[in-house]
Specification:
The protein is of the alpha/beta class and about 220 residues long. The protein contains six helices and ten strands; from the N terminus they run αβαβαββαβαβββαββ. The longest helix is centred in the middle third of the chain and has 14 residues.
């Protein structure tokens, strides 16, 4: 298993990472209707989703491996007068008790490791979720340019080391296909898996594909 490495947020254009993604509006409504209260933001980054869920009335815990991200979220939560449990930690060993959360959001985070690490992270998500609790997460697709064509150094059959300049340079990225996802999440009832192709972003052509997974712990 490779060592975990967080984003170097100092090198990032932070603006896009301060706005909640479209998906969380749907998730907040769904989870509130289900009576869910306690949510874990796994790989919280700068904290956009932690802030969003706290503002919606959830009891939020957030964890990230980046000192910069954790400190940014603490200052943001203080400014917004929000009570969020914020921890610095590694996603392969979560500092929470079994069955602690109704739901877990892990947006563009659990792929930042190799195959062994990904399996460990998913087992940790399963451990901290209550029975019937839900996970919403994303995974890099093997159809993406970065995996299929970039020629980045390969760590194992599913993992490459990103070499593009930016905040996640030298961060491992695990890539999956639909069969991999069904195998990895075999202890979850999978409600939906979407495969999204980001072909144009801000008028620039892309070849970046991701899976978005919504599952419930059996």
């Amino acid at each position: 298993m490779v060592d975990s490495k967080g984003w170097e947020w100092e090198k990032a254009n932070q603006s896009p990472w301060l706005t909640p993604t479209d998906d969380v509006y749907y998730l907040a409504n769904k989870w509130l209707e289900l009576g869910f209260k306690k949510v874990l933001d796994l790989g919280a980054g700068l904290g956009r989703h932690s802030i969003f869920f706290a503002q919606k009335g959830f009891k939020v815990s957030a964890i990230d491996i980046s000192d910069y991200g954790v400190n940014h979220l603490k200052e943001w939560a203080k400014k917004e007068n929000l009570d969020i449990d914020i921890k610095l930690g590694d996603m392969i060993s979560l500092p929470y008790a079994d069955n602690s959360f109704d739901c877990v959001i892990a947006y563009h985070s659990i792929s930042h490791t190799d195959t062994s690490g990904t399996k460990k992270v998913i087992s940790e998500i399963e451990r901290v979720l209550k029975q019937g609790g839900e996970v919403y997460t994303s995974m890099c697709s093997k159809e993406s340019w970065e995996f299929a064509k970039a020629g980045y150094p390969q760590i194992d059959e599913n993992t490459v080391l990103n070499k593009e300049d930016g905040p996640d340079k030298d961060v491992p990225h695990f890539y999956a296909n639909s069969d991999d996802i069904l195998d990895l999440f075999h202890n979850f009832d999978i409600e939906r898996v979407r495969h999204i192709d980001y072909c144009v972003i801000d008028n620039e052509k892309q070849d970046s594909k991701y899976y978005y997974i919504n599952g419930r712990k059996k």
